[in-house]
Amino acid sequence: MTQLPVLNFSSEATGTTRDGRRASLPPRHLADLDLAGRRAAVAELGEQAFRAGQVSAHYFGRLIRDPAEMTDLPARSRAAITDALLPQLLHPVSELATDNGTTRKTLWRLHDGALVESVLMGYPDRVTVCVSSQAGCGMACPFCATGQAGLTRNLSTAEIVDQVVWFAGQAARGALPGCPDRLSRVVFMGMGEPLANYNRVIAAVRRLTEPAPEGLGLSQRHITVSTVGLVPGIRRLTEEGLSVTLALSLHAPDDDLRDTLVPVNQRWKVAEVLDAAFEYAARTGRRVSIEYAMIRDVNDHPWRADLLGRLLSGRLAHVNLIPLNPTPGSKWDASPKPVEREFVRRLRAAGVATTVRDTRGREIDGACGQLAASSGGTVGEREDGLLARRANEETQ
What we know:
31% of the residues lie in helices and 17% in strands. It contains twelve helices and twelve strands. Helix 10 links the parallel strand 10 and strand 11. The relative contact order is 0.14.
């Protein structure tokens, strides 16, 4: 059995760089601040405080970053204000597209050289972005490249938010043919464990859902926050008063196997994790998404489907089965389709709503950090995230 690694659950930890140096925080950005904080920052420059609302309206409301387009700011002070509140946080390294241009995956380099990935997915009725909350991941799940690479650092609130705003701007400019021009959904299923960067992720959720110019004005019900099962974080989230969807990456219904597949299970067992998730569902009225990667001859046995069905029967939960998208050289492979169909049949027979996720992005290094690895990075994606997947199940 895999022994539980030393995991850092501090919401303020920045981690270390690849050569062991302490990671530095990125420049302050207006998305790190509430509107009062932005006004104070502008006042420090000797400008009138209301200028903070103007630049915020450009960034969140009009999705504009170019100071030259912010003509309501005085020309003499425009550069100083935008330099102070809108530093460039994300530097695109590469972008790949598939599905006739409706799936776009971007690799970003951050100010300290860390690499993260995010995906924009367009559908006829919605546009979704899948974002990263950490560079790397400390959860050490063995079938996941990110977990094996380890944690580089937490992302700042603004680094998270800026991924969404960047893609919202792309959608608004018609980058996704045949899709709406307004981004409507966000899933925290990219690199990292969101609840291990709790404070900044929650601040990002609030910034994304506050109306402009305070934030981007998305619906809380269209935000999904995933976790491998950090029980204290789930319980904190339950008390936040938010109505986001909780997605629990379970991957096994029994402790013997989950201790290996999801090492944090050695600290919080299946029963405790599910109890915390069900408490969240009861408090919020939001159905919990149970994420389950189908791994050939590992977790796809009929008896495990039956056990999962018993654990979830009668609960406010929905199972998303994820066909594994293995990385090159991995010993892990996807379950055969007949096995997958039998797993679905057994769950539905137990009265558990179940869907099989239709993955996207296989042609553009869609699995587990392939894009980051090919660019010289050491970090990847969580297997249950950034596969460029359908997100409608999580956000109903």
